[in-house]
């Protein structure tokens, strides 16, 4: 079936209840098409969670898995579901950057960083650690996009330790893009998503509300949805600074 209700697992599912990769590839096309037509977030969210579950119990790790998590993360951002979004971005980071770069103790809920796979023939449990597998590679645009999201998410959560790591990562991505553009002898027409996110972080840290709202208007991809969670904080800081400047 292309559609499947999401149910939290209490025992390992039967083989006939888990959709194989070939079906899941058709399912993601169906989900995207129907979501664009209906904009039914509740339905799309349930379907993508069910798909993630089928991928997880099979221990799959390939570019299609990356596509599913990226798609779900974007839809979750559009609807402001940061808890589920963090599950997706944490898994994306573990798939592309590695477990050593994923903060310990982060709640990944259904998508545990250690996937438990079962051999149905022998009836034995087999543990497959993601860290033992080669890392996947995002496209240059996706790496830039999600690098920006991780930085902005850390800023929203006031996770300064993680934000420092993501600032370094974002700067690394920006430098890599600059080098790539120089080699291709191309001039960038706009800043990258990571470069934009770095500027946003600086504007918040330095209480530069003018720059923040200018950057808000020029936000790239879905960064605006994360910046929405910063607006009240920045406005409050701006009011306090304005009032303080007029105090006798």
UniProtKB/TrEMBL annotation:
**Which species does the entry assign this protein to?**
Helicotheca tamesis
Please give the name of this protein.
SAC3/GANP/THP3 conserved domain-containing protein
Where in the numbering of this chain does the SAC3/GANP/THP3 conserved domain appear?
11-246
Q: Which GO terms describe its cellular component?
A: nucleus
Source domain of life is: Eukaryota
Per the UniProt record, the lineage of the source organism begins with:
Eukaryota, Sar, Stramenopiles, Ochrophyta, Bacillariophyta
UniProt xrefs under InterPro entries:
SAC3/GANP/THP3 (IPR045107), SAC3/GANP/THP3_conserved (IPR005062)
């Amino acid at each position: 079936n292309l559609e499947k209700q999401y149910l939290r697992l209490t025992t390992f599912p039967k083989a006939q209840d888990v959709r194989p990769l070939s079906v899941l590839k058709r399912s993601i096309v169906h989900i995207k098409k129907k979501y664009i037509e209906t904009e039914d977030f509740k339905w799309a969210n349930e379907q993508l969670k069910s798909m993630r579950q089928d991928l997880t119990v099979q221990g799959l790790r390939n570019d299609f898995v990356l596509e599913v998590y990226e798609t779900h993360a974007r839809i979750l951002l559009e609807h402001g579901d940061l808890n589920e979004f963090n599950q997706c971005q944490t898994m994306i980071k573990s798939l592309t950057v590695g477990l050593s770069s994923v903060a310990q103790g982060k709640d990944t809920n259904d998508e545990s960083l250690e996937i438990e796979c079962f051999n149905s023939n022998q009836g034995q449990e087999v543990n497959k650690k993601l860290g033992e597998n080669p890392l996947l590679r995002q496209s240059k645009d996706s790496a830039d996009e999600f690098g920006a999201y991780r930085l902005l998410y850390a800023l929203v959560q006031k996770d300064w330790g993680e934000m420092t790591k993501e600032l370094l990562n974002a700067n690394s991505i920006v430098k890599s893009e600059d080098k790539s553009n120089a080699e291709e002898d191309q001039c960038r027409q706009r800043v990258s998503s990571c470069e934009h996110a770095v500027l946003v972080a600086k504007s918040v840290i330095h209480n530069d509300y003018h720059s923040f709202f200018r950057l808000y208007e020029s936000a790239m991809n879905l960064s605006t949805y994360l910046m929405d969670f910063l607006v009240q904080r920045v406005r409050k800081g701006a009011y306090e600074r304005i009032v303080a400047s007029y105090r006798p």
